[in-house]
Amino acid sequence: AIGGSAACLSWGGGGSSTDSEEGKELHALGHLIGNQLKDLRGFTPTELDVVLAGIRASLLGETPSVPLDTYAPKAALLLRDRVQAHEAAEAKRNSAQDEAGLKAAAGVDGARRTTSGLVYHELRRGTGAAPTATSTVKVHYVGSLLDGTEFDSSIKRGQPAEFALDSVIPGWSEGVQLMRVGGKARLHVPSELGYGDRGVGPIPPGSVLVFELELVDIVTQ
């Protein structure tokens, strides 16, 4: 744990109030910055007070209260350990629920579970060519979590995306290779075929990923 007393942040001047329009903007700014600091989720509220006090002191140009040449390397190791512990705990919490979701998806009429654990559900059979493991493809897709939280969409961007199938997550590569150009499918990708226990951006560690795909074209075989 981080030693020392917990120095709570006090920005002064009523800056913590959200009664004014500027206060609301500042509060929103705090959330935006917090979203960039997800690695700190493994710390307790008391520990975060100490971390935030250090951030405040740095921003205000104050002299560090501890020797950074001694404690910065230790802080990096502490952060690494907390991130790993947090991700492992979150992945464990997700695993039972996600396995139930995979079984439910595999039980839908027309869906099947492959030997790797991928759940593939063909929504519309394509009539064109089928890609290979080294193909570059053009696809429209929507990616979401099991609870329906959307994390990516080429449709919202207004144009299909191009991917080399040998450079994407294994579940994506396997699923697209089961399709033909013009086809649509839904993939339920278990975490071991996705981002595993580390998580990425808005995707929590150990998450099942759900993709609705349309294979628009094969750019190169």
TrEMBL record:
Record-linked InterPro entries: PPIase_dom_sf, PPIase_FKBP_dom, PPIase_FKBP_N
Sequence segments annotated as region (Disordered): 1-22
Keyword flag Isomerase: yes
Gene Ontology MF terms: peptidyl-prolyl cis-trans isomerase activity
Domain PPIase FKBP-type per the UniProt entry, residue ranges: 134-219
Keywords: Isomerase, Rotamase
Known EC number: 5.2.1.8
Keyword Metal-binding: no
GO biological process per UniProt: protein folding
The protein's enzyme class: isomerase
Reactions listed under catalytic activity: [protein]-peptidylproline (omega=180) = [protein]-peptidylproline (omega=0)
Protein name, UniProt field: peptidylprolyl isomerase
Source organism per UniProt: Phaeocystis antarctica
